[in-house]
Amino acid sequence: MSSTTEQDRTSYRKLSRLRWIAWGTTIVPLVIGAVGVVSVALQAKKSQEDLRVQTDEAARLRDEKHALENEVVQLRATLREETERVSSLRANAEALAAQQSKLEVALSSPDTAGAIATVRATMADRSPRERAVALRRRAKEVGLHNRPELATQLLEAAVREDSSYAEGMIDLGFAAMSRKDLKEAEKQFFAAALAAENADTNGYYAFGLVNLINVLVIENRLDDAKQCANLIRPVADPQLDGGTFKCVPDPPRSGKLYEQTCPCAKFRKSVTDPPKDEGIPRTLDMLEIALSRQAKLPK
Fold it and tell me: Measured between alpha carbons, how far is 27 from 96 in angstroms, rounded to an integer?
């Protein structure tokens, strides 16, 4: 009986050993294999994710490359346009320089008629005022060299170019006064005031009238001078705050505001002051003195 039990125990031990051997030879490899499969799967998934990230990065870099290429194309086009524009500006500048040189040569010529004709031809594409300004500038230069006849001819040509060029007419008036031709001076100063009034430039309107008053006082035509002075003095108007304005130089000459009565109150706006604005009150004071002296004379 005891031997049977011993055999059973031996068999059981052998069976247990075989069971462990079976586990070691079958189950453990299966577990190891499963772990390996899972590890490979995870590695594959990670590789796939890395590949997707790299693919997205490559696509982004490719888009950036295309954008940069497009920007380079646009910059090249812009550079080409700017180069063409600079070339055009350089050509225009050279043409203007040549035109200016030709103009200066023409204006320095003693042949006044030829100089005037050259100015008209050279500046044909410019405005009448620009041609008039060029002729007046040359007239001033000529006047500095004691050539009054030539200066007068150039000024007359300037006024013919632009019939509203009050500055040129005022210069002609001064030229006439230097020749003691008071009638011509009166005509030119009156024309300057009229041209400035029509052009709505109050400063030269007042300046022309002031110089006209000077001529009339010299001629002892005080009543006419008084009428001209009334055109300069403001007319009281409640809407105009007594008819006073702040006069601003136009074109700017002193850069400061000059307060005085409006040279002509019919213009409902700020008015420009003449270049020699101090001449207005001085001339009017002179006229007042002349009128008071006239009143004291025996009838």
Answer: 101
Q: pLDDT tens digits for 216-270?
A: 888 888 888 877 777 764 433 334 333 333 333 333 333 232 333 334 333 333 3
The secondary structure element, H or E, covering residue 259 is strand 258-261
With tokens 């051997």, the residue in question is 21
CA-wise closest residue to 209 among 199, 224, 200, 219: 224
How many whole angstroms from its chain centre is CA 173?
A: 35
Residue type, 133: V
Residue 263's φ and ψ, nearest 5 degrees, are -60, -30
Q: What is the pTM of this model?
A: 0.47
Amino acid at 91: A
Going by the DSSP 8-state scheme, the letter that residue 272 receives in this structure is P
3-state secondary structure of 247: strand
Residue 292: pLDDT above 70? no
Q: CA angle at residue 282 from 225 to 297, to 5 degrees?
A: 50
Indicate the residue type of 99. Answer: Q
The continuous run of DSSP H or E covering 178 comes out as helix 166-178
Closest CA to 259 of 275, 242, 246: 246
Q: Residue 290 and residue 225: Cα distance in Å, rounded?
A: 10
